[in-house]
Design brief:
By secondary structure, this protein is of the alpha+beta class. It is about 45% helix and about 20% strand. The strands form 2 sheets. A 3-stranded antiparallel beta sheet has the order 1-2-5.
Length: about 180
């Protein structure tokens, strides 16, 4: 059995956002294997995400992004359950990242269910089309190894509240 040091717990906590006791327990369960502990906490976080998805999101924030030169701007409404979480640094960062992502990638819809049937081209694979136009299915611009949906689920696991994108808009001069 590996000795679990405070430094190991601190590193896992910084990388996952999980609580101190949860990090320590997970490291003990995985024999000190950091990669395995991260994966275990991620899986646990996905379970949390599934549990809270039906909760009402009546708080949150509206975040904006203005591209240098003022020729493009985005606005996104990101909602959560409590004003306490809406004021946390993690939630604010997520909101800013989403506004930036929308500016960079220009999605047209939030969810797959929002795409009208007549908007789907017949000559393109459905998955590829959704990656291009559906925000939640797009690879996250700062880390293409995860989608926006996975990024939000990770935030839900960390903050322990339901988080949704209610709406967004993107303005571009001449666009």
């Amino acid at each position: 059995m590996a000795v679990i040091t405070a430094q190991m717990v601190k590193e896992l906590r910084e990388r996952t956002g999980a609580g101190i006791k949860e990090c320590k327990d997970t490291l003990e369960q995985t024999g000190g294997d950091m990669a395995q502990a991260i994966e275990k906490l991620r899986e646990k976080g996905l379970k949390v995400s599934d549990k809270v998805q039906d909760r009402v999101t009546s708080e949150g924030r509206i975040e904006t992004y203005m591209h240098p030169g003022n020729r493009m701007a985005t606005m996104v409404e990101v909602c959560c359950e409590t004003d306490f979480v809406a004021r946390t640094e993690d939630f604010i960062t997520l909101s800013k990242e989403l506004a930036l992502h929308i500016a960079a990638v220009n999605p047209r819809y939030i969810r797959v269910e929002d795409v009208p049937a007549d908007a789907i081209p017949g000559d393109m694979k459905l998955e590829k089309f959704y990656e291009e136009v559906v925000l939640l299915k797009q690879p996250y611009v700062k880390d293409p190894s995860q989608t926006i949906e996975e990024r939000i689920k990770a935030a839900v696991a960390k903050l322990r509240e339901n988080i949704i994108i209610r709406r967004f808009v993107r303005f571009e001069i001449g666009g």
